[in-house]
């Protein structure tokens, strides 16, 4: 076992990938003879790499490009057609600068404030024995926080449906079943809605708050000097609000960690800034979210003496690297303290990609993610609640993974 696929380069692994989820690349790697996994996905040659040096190699634009690498079913669900994720070179840098301009210290603080206010309002109603599904509640809280911040007008009554659509976009990208079709419908609906909003802003019928993502996306000019097509502007607005709401996954994982290893609660409750940040990093390292990131070899490459043919898909094994014992001692132990006093290189901790976010494809929202996670796990730790019997298993075969029950809590009351 273990060698399935790796020893048979003509065997297509697409089915195994969908079936095995997070374990797929790591299993191929255990069966590989060297540093590189050779396999096939979607009828194409593919190689899997892992480790900080491999990540540096992968993020070199002279080695790997994105334009033709992403399959249609991922663009039609998770990212959108024409998204920054699919651009290379100057076109990428100019579009990426638009995202980076939104991620200033002030902007992040305002988003965290709006979101914590939404959390406090929601948590005040989690009393009296009410059964709260933390995953669903958090998605609504983040939707309530991010939309006004992004300049997107939203009636309170529309929050649950929008939160469900934004979750669906993430939930449906790696399956070909009903979740996938739900995601496609959500994308069509929300691109149309936001495209109309962008046209209204341009036509003067709606005023976008100056400097808000809506304002910036409506006015942004691409490398060719042209305004974005309204649909592409909508795609990129979704690429701000969709991943912000996806922080829901990490908050739910944080609740799982606090339940499994309650000894970490005290430091969070006390507001210990160093340990809270370390906890946020450990949640992002330990729990499965992005399985890998991928691109295409721009020419024939060589990595650690192994040939990568021109045009092959190159997959950077995110989940595998975040659990690599060469990088993390006892990687399957949840231990936030591993991050205290550790200097993180640009290619070490890669749940949101590696390298320089302004220059390459690393996630521009990482600082936002950590800031939101810190604020929300502090609040979670300060809440007293019961965790009734439920199915908290996290299947590594389901991408994206989550605790099966969504983490149910009852009888919440603020900590004494
Ligand atoms: C890219 C993960 C939150 C916006 C990425 C990538 C990953 C990732 C793995 C791809 C890196 C690559 O292709 O090399 C996550 C996770 C998040 C999160 C797990 C937390 C739940 C955010 C937030 C925002 C954001 C809060 C915006 C406010 C983006 C954008 C890209 C991106 C626009 C594309 C960047 C590019 O292609 O240059 N993210 N992200 N993400 N993320 Fe995030």
UniProtKB/TrEMBL annotation:
<dbReference type="InterPro" id="IPR002401">
    <property type="entry name" value="Cyt_P450_E_grp-I"/>
</dbReference>
<keyword id="KW-0479">Metal-binding</keyword>
<protein>
    <submittedName>
        <fullName>Fatty-acid peroxygenase</fullName>
    </submittedName>
</protein>
<keyword id="KW-0408">Iron</keyword>
<keyword id="KW-0349">Heme</keyword>
<dbReference type="InterPro" id="IPR036396">
    <property type="entry name" value="Cyt_P450_sf"/>
</dbReference>
<dbReference type="InterPro" id="IPR001128">
    <property type="entry name" value="Cyt_P450"/>
</dbReference>
<keyword id="KW-0503">Monooxygenase</keyword>
<dbReference type="Pfam" id="PF00067">
    <property type="entry name" value="p450"/>
</dbReference>
<keyword id="KW-0560">Oxidoreductase</keyword>
<comment type="similarity">
    <text>Belongs to the cytochrome P450 family.</text>
</comment>
């Amino acid at each position: 076992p273990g060698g399935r696929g790796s020893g048979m380069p003509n065997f297509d692994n697409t089915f195994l990938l969908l079936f095995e989820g997070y374990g797929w690349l790591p299993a191929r790697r255990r069966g590989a003879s060297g540093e590189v996994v050779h396999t096939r996905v979607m009828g194409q040659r593919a190689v899997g790499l892992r480790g900080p040096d491999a990540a540096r190699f992968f993020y070199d634009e002279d080695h790997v490009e994105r334009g033709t690498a992403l399959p249609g079913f991922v663009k039609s669900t998770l990212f959108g057609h024409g998204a920054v994720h699919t651009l290379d070179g100057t076109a990428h840098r100019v579009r990426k600068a638009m995202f980076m301009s939104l991620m200033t210290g002030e902007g992040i603080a305002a988003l965290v404030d709006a979101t914590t206010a939404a959390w406090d309002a929601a948590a005040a109603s989690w009393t009296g024995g009410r059964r709260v599904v933390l995953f669903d509640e958090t998605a609504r809280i983040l939707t309530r926080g991010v939309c006004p911040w992004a300049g997107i007008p939203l009636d309170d009554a529309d929050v649950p449906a929008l939160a469900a659509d934004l979750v669906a976009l993430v939930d449906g990208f790696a399956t070909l079943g009903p979740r996938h079709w739900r995601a496609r419908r959500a994308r069509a609906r929300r691109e149309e809605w936001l495209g109309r909003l962008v046209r209204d802003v341009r036509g003067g019928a709606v005023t976008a708050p100056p400097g808000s993502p809506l304002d910036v996306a409506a006015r942004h000019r691409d490398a060719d000097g042209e305004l974005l097509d309204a649909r592409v502007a909508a795609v990129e607005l979704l690429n701000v609000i969709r991943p912000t709401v996806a922080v829901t996954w990490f908050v739910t994982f944080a609740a799982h960690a606090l339940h499994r290893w309650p000894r970490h609660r005290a430091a969070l409750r006390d507001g210990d800034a160093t340990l809270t940040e370390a906890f946020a990093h450990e949640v992002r390292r330990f729990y499965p979210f992005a399985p890998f990131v991928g691109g295409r070899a721009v020419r024939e490459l060589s990595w650690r003496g192994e040939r990568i043919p021109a045009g092959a898909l190159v997959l950077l094994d995110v989940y595998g690297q975040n659990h690599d014992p060469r990088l993390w001692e006892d990687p399957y132990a949840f231990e936030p303290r591993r991050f205290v006093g550790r200097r993180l290189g640009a290619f070490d901790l890669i749940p949101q990609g590696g390298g320089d976010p302004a220059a390459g494809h690393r996630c521009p929202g990482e600082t936002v993610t950590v800031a939101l996670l810190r604020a929300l796990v502090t609040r979670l730790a300060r809440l007293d609640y019961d965790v009734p019997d439920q199915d908290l298993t996290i299947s590594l075969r389901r991408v994206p993974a989550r605790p099966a029950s969504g983490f149910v809590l009852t009888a919440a009351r603020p900590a004494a």
